[in-house]
Each structure stands twice: as C-alpha cells, then as structure tokens.
Write a structure and sequence with these properties.
This protein is an all-alpha fold and 159 residues long. The protein is 68% helix and 3% strand.
Length: 159
C-alpha cells in the first residue's frame, strides 16, 4: 500500500472511530479498525502491542482524571475499546506512512507530544472525549510514540 493511501486510510479510520463513538455507536469504530487492521495482518504483533500499550496509557489517563468519556461512548472497560482501536490505527502507519520515523526516537517523541494532544482536541470537539490535562496527554504520547517505534522496528517482518 502506498504511503499516501496508508495516511488517508488512517484518517478515515480515525474519523470512523471517533464520530460514531460521539454519536453513541462506539462499536462501529471497532469494526472499522478491525477491517483496517486486517490489511496490516503481517504486523499483527505490532498491532497487538499497540492495543496493549494504548489500553494501559488510556487507563492511566482516565484513572488520573486527565481524560473523561461521555456515557454514550462506552463499550468495554476500563476505558472505551474504540480508544485502543485508535492506537492500533496509529500503529498501522509506523511501517508505512510514518516509516521515515524508524529509529528517530526523539523526533517520534516530539511528534507524539504535539500530534497526540491535537488528536484528542479534535476528538473533544467532536464530542467523543473530554481532555482535562492536555499536558498529560502530551507526556503520554511523547513516551508512547518512541516505544511504538521501537516495537515496530523490532517486530518488522521481512518483505
């Protein structure tokens, strides 16, 4: 898949997760992400690692009051599962449209610190999440992005 198609697909899946969650149909985003993840099944270990890291990160953000979710967005626990789907969606870009970040952990941390909160801000504007501490989101993504880049590099399968 081309880098542009990967980036465009990432955007479609992001909106396909966030908008339905805000509208009280969070299972739609999970289904959309599962279809997307199927296209990247060769990276199944990375996608699973991202889901686990994402659930842990989102649970920490939620547990500390850094984020909150409107009642209609809930499916799953301890945080809405569509949030883990977004982490899987992000991981699907690491060996494709974001492959230029491979081995560039400081750049990854900077990207995470900026793009992470922007993504949450957009989700907040759409009604899917409430962000109480943007700095915590920035810190979480500044740490998680290099970790995911490292995982992508270690788990990359030969073509």
């Amino acid at each position: 898949m081309s880098k542009f198609a990967n980036f465009a697909g990432f955007q479609v899946v992001w909106f396909g997760c966030v908008i339905p969650a805000a509208a009280g149909m969070p299972w739609i985003g999970i289904a959309v992400c599962l279809v997307w993840a199927w296209l990247y099944r060769r990276d199944v270990q990375l996608l699973c690692a991202a889901a686990g890291i994402g659930l842990a990160a989102e649970t920490a953000l939620y547990s500390t009051g850094s984020t909150a979710f409107p009642p209609q967005t809930w499916i799953g626990a301890p945080v809405p599962l569509w949030m883990a789907a977004l982490w899987v969606n992000f991981a699907a870009t690491l060996n494709e449209s974001l492959s230029w970040l491979s081995g560039r952990y400081a750049a990854g941390a900077l990207l995470g610190a900026v793009a992470g909160p922007l993504s949450y801000w957009a989700g907040e504007r759409l009604g899917a999440i409430q962000v109480n501490r943007p700095w915590a989101v920035a810190l979480t993504w500044a740490l998680a992005t290099p970790a995911l880049l490292y995982a992508a590099r270690q788990l990359r399968r030969p073509e």
